[in-house]
UniProtKB/TrEMBL annotation:
Residues 749-767 have a biased composition (Basic and acidic residues). It comes from Morella rubra (Chinese bayberry). Residues 215-586 form the Glycosyl hydrolase family 13 catalytic domain. InterPro entries: A-amylase/branching_C, Branching_enzy, GH, GH13_cat_dom, Glyco_hydro_13_N, Glyco_hydro_b, Ig-like_fold, Ig_E-set. The lineage of its organism: Eukaryota, Viridiplantae, Streptophyta, Embryophyta, Tracheophyta. This is 1,4-alpha-glucan-branching enzyme 1, chloroplastic/amyloplastic. Belongs to the glycosyl hydrolase 13 family. GlgB subfamily. GO terms for cellular component: amyloplast. Signal peptide: none annotated.
C-alpha cells in the first residue's frame, strides 16, 4: 500500500509519447484540434496514474476494493479496523462493545498514516456485536481528543428522541440468516433509459418518511406501470441534514438509515430488478458535508492537503454550497472514492450512477458566476481541474470494467466537449449527460411569454442543440423545479386552479384545459426530440400540485409538503389521471417503436405563423400544434418513407382528457414530392408528404403501416393506458415463479405481457386486419 500525491505538474507528455495516448476524440470534433496539448496532458496523467496503481496496488480494480481493507472487516478470529488519519497523534476504537473506554483498544499507525487494530472474538461472540455503536477516537496535534464516525462506516443512525442529535457509527455485520440474498438478475441495459427520479423518504402519501420496503412494495409497481425502465434513487448516501435532499453527504458507504437498514435497501433493488427496472444511484463525489461531528470533515484538523481528504484554504470550500471539496490528487482520496463506487455496485447491485455536481468538479471556479457560451477556451484552460478530470476518467473506467452494461450520467451545465465520449479515445467516459438547458427553456416560456410569443424554431433548437455522438438525457423538469421557491410545469400552467378545477364532475376551465394540453405536449416533445433518454421526477408525471418543502425550522419541521399525494392520481373523478395516462402511453410508444434511441432525427418544419413543429424520430412522424386557437384540416406534413400512416398516439384522445377530435380510424396515404434525390425540390426537404387534421394545442405521432408485415393497430396504441398497473402484478407473479435457484445461475425468462383483455398489450394482427379503432373504445 502506498500514499502519494499526483499534482498537475507531475506528468509531462513529450512528442515521442504522443502516439502512445489515444486521443482519437480529436477526429470526431475538429474544433478540438487546437487543444491537442491539453488532451495529451490529461490523457498522459490518466495513463501515469493507472501505471502507478498497477505498480503499487495491483491495478485499478484491486485498488477500488478498499472497503475490504479499510473500515471494519471480519477475519477468522476477530474484526480488523483500519482508518487513514495521518494527522492523528494517538488513536483508539471506542463503542458500546468496550463501554466507550478505548484504553484497551489503542491503535497502531503505519508509515502511510493508516491506523489499525484487531478486536478478537470471545468464543462464539464477535469482538464487536452486530448493530452496536462505534467511533474512532483520536488525538490531534493540539493534544485534543475527538470522537468521529469511521470514514468507511457501513451504517449510521441517530437517536430519534433527541432533537439535533449527531449520528453514530454502527458496526453492521448481520448473521447469515438476516442478510438479504439477491434473487433476481440485473435487467438488460435498455436502448434508451426512461428514468423515474425518486426520493424514497418523501414517497409516502402520508406526512412522514417512507421506508425502503414500502417504496419497493407500493411505489415501484407504479413506476413499472407507467412503463419506465429505470429508477434513479436520490438521497441514498447517508446525510445528517434531511433537507439537503441528500446532497450534503456525511457517510459515503452508509445507506441512509432514515428509510431502513442496508438489507432493506437491497430488498428494494432486488424488487426493482424483478419488475425489469434498473436502478441508478445519485452519487455525490463533487463535495462533502462540512459537518465535523458526524461527517468526513471531522478528520480535517488543520493538517496539510496531503494528509487530508480535502484541499486546504479557500480551495477546500465551496462558497455557495457551504461544503468541503475533495483533493482528487490524493492517493487515499482516490482509493476512498473509487472504492465507494465499487461498493455500491457490488454490495447493493446498483446498475449505474448519476454523478451530481460534475461542473463543480471540472473547473477550479466550480462554475460559480460563469456563463458558458460554448467557446472551447472555457473548457480547456488553466481553469480546468485536471485532477478531477482524471478522477472521473478513472471512475468511469472502473465502473464499466466492473459492469460493462452500467449506465453513468453526468450532471454538467457547462457542456464540456468529450464528457460523454469513451475514455479509450480521450473522453471522460460518461454514457449520458443531462440536457440541463431544456427545463430552463420551458420555465422561461411559461413564466415570461404569452402563447402567441412562443417560437417554434427556438423551442426546436433548444431541444436539438446537443453534441453529436454524446448522448443526452432529456427532461422537462426534475426535482430542481419541484423544490420550494420554484414551480413545477403543472403549477406554472394551472396555479390555483389545481386546487379547485381538477374535478371531472365539472367542465374544465380555460386555464385547466390549456394546462392539461400543454403539460402533455411539453413532456412528449421533450421525450421525442430532446435526447437519447428521458427523465421524470416522482409525481410530475401526473402534475403533482405545489412544491417540495422539507421539514425545517421555517415550516415548523412539517412534513406536509414533503410527500407525494398518490390519492390524487388514484381518484377517478380527478383530472390528474389524464396526465398520468398520457405519460404511461408515451413511454409505451417508445417501448413499441424505440424512437428515443434512434439517430434519425429530422425537424422538417417549424412554422411560426401556424405554431406547428413537424419532425421525424426513428420511423415515426410527429406533429405538434401549439397554436391556442387554430385547427388545421388537411395540414401537409413531410415524411421520408412513402406508404400509409396511422395515428400511434394522440394527446387529444378522450383517455387523456382531450376532446377526441383526431380520427384514429383514418389512413393517411403519402404523395411523392418533387424530383427523387433532389431535396430542394421536395416539400420541406422531404421526398413524401401526407395530410392530417391538427387541432390546437395537440400533438400526434404517426406510424407507417407495413405493406406485407403484421400491423400494429391504432387501437393498441391510442389510449393504451388503463390497465398497465394490473399488468405489473402479472409480471411480478411470473418473475417470482421463475426466480433463480439458490446458486443464482438460473435467469428468469422474459415475461410477456398478459394476453387477457384486462391487460394492455401491443399486438400484431394479421396484415389484412384494418386496425381501426377509436380513442374511447
Amino acid at each position: 500500500m502506498v500514499s502519494a500525491i499526483v499534482t498537475d505538474d507531475s506528468s509531462t507528455v513529450t512528442s515521442t509519447e504522443e502516439d502512445t495516448y489515444d486521443i482519437s476524440i480529436l477526429g470526431i470534433d475538429r474544433g478540438l484540434e487546437p487543444y491537442r496539448d491539453h488532451f495529451r496532458y490529461r490523457v498522459g496523467r490518466y495513463v501515469d496514474q493507472n501505471a502507478l496503481l498497477e505498480k503499487h496496488e495491483g491495478g485499478l480494480e484491486e485498488f477500488a476494493r478498499g472497503y475490504l481493507k479499510f473500515g471494519f472487516n471480519r477475519e477468522e478470529d476477530g474484526i480488523v479496523y483500519r482508518e487513514w488519519a495521518p494527522a492523528a497523534q494517538e488513536a483508539q476504537l471506542v463503542g458500546d462493545f468496550n463501554g466507550w473506554d478505548g484504553a484497551n483498544h489503542k491503535m497502531e499507525k503505519d508509515q502511510f498514516g493508516v491506523w489499525s487494530l484487531k478486536v478478537p472474538d470471545s468464543g462464539e461472540n464477535p469482538g464487536i456485536p452486530h448493530n452496536s455503536k462505534v467511533k474512532f477516537r483520536f488525538m490531534h496535534g493540539n493534544g485534543v481528543w475527538v470522537d468521529r464516525i469511521p470514514a468507511w462506516i457501513k451504517y449510521a443512525t441517530v437517536d430519534p428522541t433527541t432533537f439535533g442529535a449527531p449520528y453514530d457509527g454502527v458496526y453492521w455485520d448481520p448473521p447469515p440468516s438476516e442478510r438479504y440474498q439477491f434473487k433476481y438478475p440485473r435487467p438488460p441495459k435498455p436502448k434508451a433509459p426512461r428514468i423515474y427520479e425518486a426520493h424514497v423518504g418523501m414517497s409516502s402519501s402520508e406526512p412522514r418518511i417512507n421506508s425502503y420496503r414500502e417504496f419497493a412494495d407500493e411505489v415501484l409497481p407504479r413506476i413499472r406501470g407507467n412503463n419506465y425502465n429505470t429508477v434513479q434513487l436520490m438521497a441514498v448516501m447517508e446525510h445528517s441534514y434531511y433537507a439537503s435532499f441528500g446532497y450534503h453527504v456525511t457517510n459515503f458507504f452508509a445507506a441512509s438509515s432514515r428509510s431502513g437498514t442496508p438489507e432493506d435497501l437491497k430488498y428494494l433493488i432486488d424488487k426493482a430488478h424483478s419488475l425489469g427496472l434498473r436502478v441508478l444511484m445519485d452519487v455525490i463525489h463533487s463535495h462533502a458535508s462540512n459537518n465535523v461531528t458526524d461527517g468526513l470533515n471531522g478528520f480535517d484538523v488543520g493538517q496539510s492537503s496531503q494528509e487530508s481528504y480535502f484541499h486546504t484554504g479557500d480551495r477546500g470550500y465551496h462558497k455557495l454550497w457551504d461544503s468541503r471539496l475533495f483533493n482528487y490528487a490524493n492517493w487515499e482520496v482516490l482509493r476512498f472514492l473509487l472504492s465507494n463506487l465499487r461498493w455500491w455496485l457490488e454490495e447493493f447491485k446498483f446498475d449505474g450512477f448519476r454523478f451530481d455536481g460534475v461542473t463543480s468538479m471540472l473547473y477550479h471556479h466550480h462554475g460559480i458566476d460563469m456563463t458558458f457560451t460554448g467557446n472551447y477556451n472555457e473548457y480547456f484552460s488553466e481553469a480546468t481541474d485536471v485532477d478531477a478530470v482524471v478522477y472521473l476518467m478513472l471512475a468511469n473506467s472502473l465502473i464499466h470494467d466492473i459492469l460493462p452494461d452500467a449506465t453513468v450520467i453526468a450532471e454538467d451545465v457547462s457542456g464540456m466537449p468529450g464528457l460523454g465520449r469513451p475514455v479509450s479515445e480521450g473522453g471522460i467516459g460518461f454514457d449520458y449527460r443531462l440536457a440541463m438547458a431544456i427545463p430552463d427553456k420551458w420555465i422561461d416560456y411559461l413564466k415570461n411569454k404569452t402563447d402567441e410569443e412562443w417560437s417554434m424554431k427556438e423551442i426546436s433548437w433548444s431541444l436539438t442543440n446537443r453534441r453529436f455522438t454524446e448522448k443526452c438525457i432529456a427532461y422537462a423538469e426534475s426535482h430542481d423545479q419541484a423544490i420550494v421557491g420554484d414551480k413545477t410545469i403543472a403549477f406554472l400552467l394551472m396555479d390555483k386552479e389545481m386546487y379547485s378545477g381538477m374535478s371531472c364532475l365539472t367542465d374544465a376551465s380555460p386555464a385547466v384545459e390549456r394546462g392539461l394540453a400543454l403539460h402533455k405536449m411539453i413532456h412528449f416533445l421533450t421525450l421525442a426530440l430532446g435526447g437519447e433518454g428521458y427523465l421524470n421526477f416522482m409525481g410530475n408525471e401526473f402534475g403533482h400540485p405545489e412544491w417540495i418543502d422539507f421539514p425545517r425550522e421555517g415550516n415548523e419541521w412539517s412534513y406536509e409538503k414533503c410527500r407525494r399525494q398518490w390519492n390524487l392520481v388514484d381518484t377517478e373523478h380527478l383530472r390528474y389521471q389524464f396526465m398520468n395516462a398520457f405519460d404511461r402511453a408515451m413511454n409505451l410508444l417508445d417501448d413499441t417503436f424505440s424512437f428515443v434511441a434512434s439517430m434519425k432525427q429530422i425537424v422538417s418544419s417549424t412554422n411560426e405563423d401556424d405554431k406547428v413543429i413537424v419532425f421525424e424520430r426513428g420511423d415515426l412522424v410527429f406533429v405538434f400544434n401549439f397554436h391556442p386557437e387554430n385547427t388545421y384540416d388537411g395540414y401537409k406534413v413531410g415524411c421520408d418513407l412513402p406508404g400509409k400512416y396511422r395515428v400511434a398516439l394522440d394527446s387529444d384522445a378522450g383517455e387523456f382528457g382531450g376532446r377526441g377530435r383526431v380520427g384514429h380510424d383514418v389512413d393517411h396515404f403519402t404523395s411523392p414530392e418533387g424530383i427523387p434525390g433532389v431535396p430542394e425540390t421536395n416539400f420541406n426537404n422531404r421526398p413524401n408528404s401526407f395530410k392530417v387534421l391538427s387541432p390546437p394545442r395537440t400533438c400526434v405521432a404517426y406510424y407507417i403501416v407495413p405493406e406485407s408485415e403484421a400491423e400494429i393497430t391504432a387501437s393498441d396504441l391510442v389510449g393504451a393506458d388503463k390497465t398497465l398497473a394490473a399488468d405489473v402484478g402479472t409480471k411480478q407473479e411470473n418473475f417470482e415463479a421463475s426466480a433463480p435457484v439458490e446458486d443464482g445461475n438460473t435467469r428468469p425468462s422474459e415475461v410477456e405481457r398478459s394476453e387477457t383483455e384486462e391487460t394492455t398489450k401491443i399486438k400484431k394482427p394479421e396484415a389484412e386486419e384494418t386496425g381501426e379503432g377509436t380513442a374511447d373504445e
